[in-house]
Amino acid sequence: MPRLVVLATYDTEGRLWPHVRHQIETYAAAAEVVVVSAGGLRDEDRAWAQARAQVVERDNRGYDFASYRAGLDAAGDLARFDLVVLANDSFIGPVVPPEQIFEEMAGRGVDFWGLTRNQEMDDHVQSYFVGFTPAAVASEAFVAFWRDFEPLDDRAEVIVRYEVGLTRRLAEAGLTYDAYFVPRAYEHRRARARRSWMGVNITFDPDVDPHLLPATTAEWNLVRNIGNQPPNPCNTMADSVLDGGRLPIVKIETLRDDPYALDAEALLRHCEQAYPDEFSGVRAYLDETREARGRRLTKVVPLTAERRLDGRSLAYCAGYGTTAGPAAGLRPSNRFATGSLDGDNAPPAQIAALVGSAPEVLEVGCWTGEIGRRLGAQGCQVTGVERDEEAAAYAGRELADVVVADPLATPLTDLFAPGSFDVVVLAELLEYAPDPAAVLEDARGLLAPQGRIVVSTPNATHGSRRLAVLQGHWSTTPLPVDREPLRSFDRAGLMRLLADASLVATELRGTLADPLVSAFGVPQKTLPYAVAEWVRDQPDAMVETFQVAARPAVPGETVDAPELVPAVAPETVRLTDAHSEKAQLIRAERRAGRRLPERVAELEEQVRHLEEELARNPLRRAAGQLKRRAF
User: Fold this and answer.
1) I need a labelling partner for 127 at 20 to 30 A (CA). Which of 273, 435, 493, 617 fits?
2) CB atoms within 10 A of CB 108
3) 3-state DSSP assignment of residue 412
4) Rounded CA separation 265/259 (Å)
5) CB neighbours (10 Å) of residue 439?
6) Residue 436, CB half-sphere, CA atoms under 13 Å: how many?
7) Which residues form a coiled coil (predicted)?
8) CATH 3.100.10.10 given to domain 3-179
9) pLDDT (tens digit, 9 = 90+) per residue, 21-67?
10) Where do the domains of the chain lie?
11) Is the full-model pTM beyond 0.90?
């Protein structure tokens, strides 16, 4: 059966720009295409499109949903398609073949889907690219949605009533949905940091863009509190397009306006290098339309290199802004969750608790010194080692000393004298080391008598990784904002690594996170409740990272591994969601089922006792006889 793609397009000059033409040609190779132009097309653009697709022109009213409705009507009998896709021209891409997207989503087994999901207003698939299976198209909810459709001229009302409303209406009818792009935990954290940054650091200049000034106090408060709203993945996670096209599009507003200060120029440059066909002509299109159609946003504080490196905006240090291209100058964006400088359930807090007030501390791979600042407040004298000169310069303002060197390439004993430190901190480092045991042995040589090594590393058996593997989501592509770890450790593996380096673990801590909100994102709609709950109940499945303190081993000694001390109570981070609620219901039903035979036996025993009592009581026996004679 064929597929259908309805493409809604609009241009003030009636032009089909190169990126839109590329979309039409790409869709036409995989489906029947209906191009719906709001406001009409120029003659040459109309002729070009008609050679590749059915073309519908309509008045510019009702936004994209009115175009979608017109395209569906023009397509005729939708039952002849095994997939119906509604898309608009608000993005560049997809940068992966549409067939790849179609096959992936067919394997998910859902009724309708989008490229991304958004939690703003309510959970919904975003309507710039959404697909519907025959079951969804034939449903009464889908038919009624378009039957009841009325063109609206208020964009906010269109979003609430139609974009959010479409998902809500179909979901309430029992149809399932999902999104092609599955964000990972670090992407969620970075997105929240970016949104918070925008809420704090953006304002509107009334002399430049008075039309953007909020009209009421309520609207102004909404703008100022934007950091508390769920992030829109299309904008806040736009650089994930460089991770092999996991997010297969880039929104035009991201490239034109850069509202989250992603360094849109660098993003565009590297997209042009990575996806030359899809981004051909995009730069010229932006240059010609930016002044007329762009939103000019005024930043309170420019996003300088220093601001990109400070503890609050560390998520912006993307590394793809170098002229050498995306493969050069890359560095880790943020080793820890955004905002993790506060709260006990975070690696820096647990590391600090293990270090205590040790006089001399070495932090290997100190980045901008986020841990060192905390340790300094505890009375420690902290020296750092960092390979990134820019990050090291920033850390040097807070730490006692910072040595610029790659700790994975230069032995620590070449940089410092033996016995120089009471504690050596190796935080989120060993998983990147070609020989982690050698790094530990090298660090051990720097310890003073009674000295310790403190290690922090992600848990390889965290539930999110288990679920990711079960559902086939596991990327080995190096990210443009992060190094790719070479290995990972479970609890037993970490203990073996320490033992191989002649170290004895004395304390073991762990930060906790529910498997569905951490590490590797997995689709939740199709996840069986039993699997989610089973994974949650497995040993260490709630432990996201380990923090361990270890001392040099005494020859011949035998020491038991320490018990893990969680940063917080597990029940405080375990989600109560549809999976756990259904599991609780099933468990209650099973308990009731197991109880039923016992209850039947109890009632039978009561009947037996009553019959015995009746047999022993002559008055009752006589009453029974009289009753039988009377009737």
Assistant:
1) 273
2) 16
3) helix
4) 13
5) 25
6) 24
7) 593-620
8) no
9) 999 999 999 999 999 999 899 999 999 999 999 999 999 888 999 99
10) 3-179, 185-293, 347-576, 587-629
11) no
